[in-house]
Amino acid sequence: MSVRSHTAPQAFAAPPCFFSNLCLRRATIEKAGRSVCVGCSTRLRGVEFPLRPPSLQPLYLTGRAAAEALDMD
Ligand SMILES: [Zn+2]
Fold this sequence. Notes:
Elements: H1 20-23, E1 29-31, E2 34-36, E3 48-50, H2 63-70
Antiparallel strand pairs: 1-2, 1-3
Bound molecules: zinc ion (ZN).
């Protein structure tokens, strides 16, 4: 919560925009199978999806949760 970065305002590490060589931004949505920023989404046709952060769901926070997960086989 105390991560401070002027280059990555998002809580998770978003992938670079598909056109990042042009806009130098990070992707915020998915469109046409590509991760693009809002500005570049107008370049693509298709349905927009929210970009799914890879770590939106927290990893096992406690040893107990991890142990229970390991016992699920
Ligand atoms: Zn872009």
